[in-house]
Amino acid sequence: MIDPLAWLILLPLAWATLAFLLGPGRGAWLGIGGLAGQLWLAVGLAQKVGAGGRAIGHSVGGWGAPLGIDLAADGLSTAMLLLTQIVALPLAIYARAYFKADDPAGLYFWPLTGFLLAGLNALFLSADLFNLYVTLELVGLAAVGLVSAGGGAQQIAAALRYLFATLIGSGAYLLGVALIYGAYGTVSIGTLLPLITAEAPRLVWIAGGLMVLGLMLKTALFPFHFWLPPAHGGAPAPVSALLSALVVKASFYLILRLWLGPFAALADTAASLTALLGAAAILWGSYRAIRVQRLKMLIAYSTVAQLGYLFLIFPLLSGAGALQAGVMQAFAHGLAKAAMFAAAGVLIKATGQDRVDGLAGAAERLPLTLFAFGLAGVTLMGLPPSAGFLAKWQLIEAALAQGQWLIVAVVLAGGLLAAVYVFRVLRQAFLLAPASRDIWPVPRTLEWTAFALAAMSVLLGLRGLELMQLLRAGGAA
Amino acid sequence: MTINEALPLAVLASSLLPGLVIFILPEAWIGTRTTLNLFGAVAKLALIAVLLAGVQAGEDYGVRYAVLPGLDLAFKADALGLLFITLSAILWLFTTLYAIGYLEGAPHRSRFFGFFSLCVTATMGIAMAANLFTFFVFYELLTLATFPLVVHRGTAKAMRGGTIYLAYTLGGGALLLTGIVWLHHLLGHSEFAHGGVAAALDVQQYWQLKIIFLLLIAGVGVKAALVPLHGWLPQAMVAPAPVSALLHAVAVVKAGAFGIVRIVYEVYGAEFAQSLDLLTPLVVAAAVTIVWGSLRALFQDDLKKRLAYSTVSQVSYIALGVSLFGPIGTIGGLVHLVHQGIMKITLFFCAGNYAETLGIHKVSELGGAGRRMPLTTLAFSIAALGMMGAPLTAGAVSKAWLIDGAQAAGKEWAIWVLWTSSLLNAAYFLPILWRAWFGKRPEAWPQEHIPARSWRETWWLLLLPPLVTAAATLAAGIFADSPISPLAWAKLIAEREYSRATPLSTSTF
Amino acid sequence: MTSGLIFAGAGAALFAMGVAGVLLIEHLLRRILAFNLMGSGAFLVLVGLAQHHDAPDPVPQAMVLTGIVVAVAATALALALVRRLHGLTGSLELPEAEDD
User: Fold this and answer.
1) Nearest to A124 by CA among A160, A88, A161, A165
2) How far is Cα A444 from Cα A195, in angstroms, rounded to an integer?
């Protein structure tokens, strides 16, 4: 019997290693095949968790905690696993067509992506704090490698900034783990749950604070977002898509896990501050997205803004509906942002430049890409029919139920601001274009995968039932 | 899936599917595109005919689909919705014909007709929505589908108009969403029902209901062009004439007005809204809009802008009728939903004809146009007379019922408002008619694109639609008492709405 | 004050110094050194706080070993990137971030 938990980590590790052994630039089909297998495993796991109604566990090598590593999957982690494979598979197909044979950026894309995915899957499945640290580092290093691949000075600098930020983040996290271990003698989340109460010693507060702060740095929450725009804006399109859609969600997932789990008793005081930072992220990120000249920078700042929505749910977690809103938003943003970066990659390849106001000619010849960008934009704006709209509805409902009017106002303002920067790009499709624009031909696969991702974010907006059921049945948090 | 469930979806599909196909058609496949367009329009009319027959016979059409736990996309076909659907579908057919003629040789026609079809799909969805959630989904979809049409020409001016349009409509959407989510939270659902659902709430929550009403009306009021939310409408005139015709007679403003009707009757219920004293501010807002719109129209030289302000004014007749408590006012408002649509679309068709044929965009350039384009100007005259409420036209019927309704509701001042508006209408339409029929024609028209050929002053595709709708204006007026007139239908709806409170005797009518 | 606490305190101080170094120092090699300092600080806290057991506790030692491996990998990556940057720009400091 195939154990999905172990294989979800083992499979990407295997094909990543094989891809590396095959040599530079090779491994695309391995990756796509491997991801298809991973997706199949994730769907199977989701069905099991959704039906079984309880978390599923696995001890690696038969050794349980405290010395061994425990893997566990509940509703929340299964949902994140699903998101990861669902976004990564189209992106893999996109990347195969995107990287030309001797493109320096694509030389080690496949092994690095495989390691990244292995790390992400392991992160969602880990059940103890230290293993989470290891997976965090794995993800971080793989991501930095992807950002720096084949780049010039600016890209290497962006990768270094990202590296330092991510190392400080995981360093703070590690220090927190150390303090927790010192206080309780265990790092298993399940064991810690009943131990940390509201009367916990000051040390535990500090540990919790360190861990959450470190993770916020890795999630690029305002004001720790400085590293994200250069890194996501400068990397090749498939890399930006993977990073914005998936990697930042991983550290957010961890914050959520800690908040709902071990540190639940201590969370209330920090919740308002977190939401405030989230609001600031939405406003500042949108403002910058409206102002920048380069397309990928616009989308990167949009990520900064959209991540703010995720942090608005923290004051609401005591009531019903907030967690669901957060997960729906994570899905909506993951799918839409991947689609947007994919579409941007097509536009940039076609026009040979990456400024927003240089897109006018390309938009005519690439209607499918513009449509994909438009659909993704609809999700980001939170307009129906889209997953982003459902997330917005759930978030507003949860906020209204608890009388948090400021959150409602911020959510609405965020949607309108998103409309400003989305239409900055979309209007290029309608502007009369100068006739002399050169358009390079672009492989059709690129357009179709971008469109597929965007369409998925809209289709999820028409049917959110199964996702919500998965969360509820799997006993999220 | 039963027939009764499939039919509303089929109505949506009859414009959605051709629209999606049209998007990917090459620009040069004119024949295919035209066929798809017309096929969709005719199929839709056929399906609606079936719906009408069924509803008449007492059939129940509806379908429901769960999106989230506790949140359903729900469609139904009731009398009020069918009123809007039938109006939209019939006018869509003629606008499609008109647009095919108007955009002859223009670029991006596949894109245009693709979004055109999406617009109509959204309008159908709004009409058939069985709860506020579904209503909102298609309401915002309408915003998204109309933007590309407004900016179709791609000039800087068009983009500016589009930006203003978006700013207003998305802002209104945000307000509407807040109201809907709030109400959904209080009630546990947001279904429409005859006589309203809000009365089920506790008295302590009434203050929340008042704020929600404000949010909802403000949200739909943007599209319905209630003052001071009307600023986008004159700016959106930068769109091609078929778009202005569609926006101002069929889709956007009517969707807003329709929203007001649904909210007042099927979310709050007329009696409940009256008891919360919500109708008074609405009737005042409507009255202000009526007068303000007509005043602004007086000073516009650009023909389409003048018609835009006229729309601002005329659509609020519907709001006025709805907020005049009582069945007579309701009938007046509802029947004007249809009549204003027919008349305004005629006016915009004619304005488009003047622009396309002779390059006339301003009132001051219309001298002698009546002799050069008699049929167009005849249609324009009939519609303009209808706007003024002249006898034998549809406008006269609406005006009569609205005045009676104001009387019955004890709001005599509203009668003054209606008469003032009629006089102002005369003030800004009669000079146009005079100039067109009796004015001196200039040396040369600004830009004669289409030369006259015997009696065909312009292409027949541009002539036919306004003539048909002008004839309809007369027919709706002359045959108002027939059982298949819009008036009879409005009576039916009002009867169902008010039958809970006051049993209507036939002598009322 | 037990020896464990002294170690833990020193570790915390090292950690703080390391973080400050990574954030504030301009020279890239020194930033990498600061990162290593930061890591060592965290490891010291981990080992120090676990000292209050009578018998040696294998779990934190295993964790520190793992952490050292991770730190080595991260340092290697950082050095490779710095070397490449130096090869491209001739400088050992990060260029101004292009934010547009």
Assistant:
1) A88
2) 56
How far is CA B448 from each of CA A375, B241, B354, rounded to the nearest angstrom?
41, 17, 10
Residues shown for chain C: 100
Tokens of B329: 């006012």
Rounded to the nearest 10 degrees, the angle between the axes of helix A109-125 and helix A129-148 is 160
At residue B498 the predicted structure's pLDDT band, cuts being 50, 70 and 90, is low
Query: How confident is the model over A431-444, as pLDDT tens digits?
Result: 777 655 678 888 98
The single residue listed with the structure tokens 């500090």 is: A206
Q: Is residue B128 part of a domain?
A: no
Whether B95 shows a pLDDT value over 50: the answer reads yes
The pLDDT, as a whole number, for residue A67 is 67
State both tokens at A187. Answer: 């790092």
DSSP H helices in B57-188: 79-102, 109-128, 132-150, 156-187
Fold of C3-89: Helix Hairpins (1.10.287)
Q: What is the pLDDT of residues A137-188, one digit of tens each?
A: 999 999 999 999 877 888 999 999 999 999 999 999 999 999 988 888 888 8
Per-residue confidence (pLDDT) for residue B382, from 0 to 100: 92
Does residue A320 belong to the interface with chain B, where contact is any CB pair within 8 Å? no
Alpha helices, DSSP H only, in B276-362? Answer: 279-298, 303-323, 327-358
Residue B453 pairs in a beta bridge with B456
Bridge partners (DSSP) listed for residue B68? B71
Distance between CA atoms of B124 and B17, rounded to whole angstroms? 14
In this prediction, residues A284-308 reach a mean pLDDT of 94
More confident call, B219 vs B58: B219
Please tell me the predicted confidence (pLDDT) of residue B446: 79
Chain A 136-155, residues with CB within 8 Å of chain C CB atoms: 137, 141, 144-145, 148, 152-154
Question: What are the residue boundaries of the structural domains of chain A, listed by start?
Answer: 4-473
B64: left (phi over 0), alpha (psi -120 to 50) or beta: beta
C35/A167 Cβ within 8 A:
yes
Q: Where in the sequence is the domain holding B365, given as residue range(s)?
A: 299-509
Examine residue B61 and state whether it is found in any structural domain, yes or no: no
Q: Which of C19, C41, C77 sits opposite A145 (nearest CB)?
A: C77
Q: Is residue B424 part of a domain?
A: yes
Q: Is-contact A446 A339, C-beta < 8 A?
A: no
- For residue B179, pLDDT beyond 60: yes
> Going along A46-149, which residue ranges are E strands?
56-59, 70-73
Identity of residue B350: C
Q: Which chains touch C (3 or more CB pairs under 8 A)?
A: A
* Alpha carbon distances (Å) from A127 to A33, A49, A348: 28, 16, 42
Tell me, yes or no, whether chains A and C touch by having 3 or more C-beta pairs under 8 A: yes
Token digits of residue B395: 């406008």
- Six token digits for residue C7: 């170690």
Q: Name A57's bridge partners.
A: A72
- pLDDT higher than 90, residue A344: yes
Please give the full DSSP string across B236-284, using - where no structure is assigned.
Answer: GGGS-HHHHHIIIIISHHHHHHHHHHHIIIIII-HHHHHHTT-HHHHHH
Q: Read off the pTM.
A: 0.92
Kindly tell me if the per-residue pLDDT of B503 is higher than 50.
no
Average pLDDT along chain C:
88
* CA quadruple A179, A180, A182, A187: dihedral sign: negative
Task: Spell out the residues 6+ positions from residue B206 whose beta carbon is closer than 8 angstroms to its own.
Answer: B276
Q: Report the domain count for chain B.
A: 1
If one counts every other C-beta atom within 10 angstroms of the C-beta of residue B247, the result is 27
Residue B508 has what pLDDT?
A: 34
- B31 or C50: which carries more pLDDT confidence? B31
| pLDDT tens digits for range B323-359 | 887 888 888 888 898 999 999 999 999 999 888 888 8
A64 interfaces chain C, CB cutoff of 8 Å? no
Which residue is it, tokens 């009939």?
B382
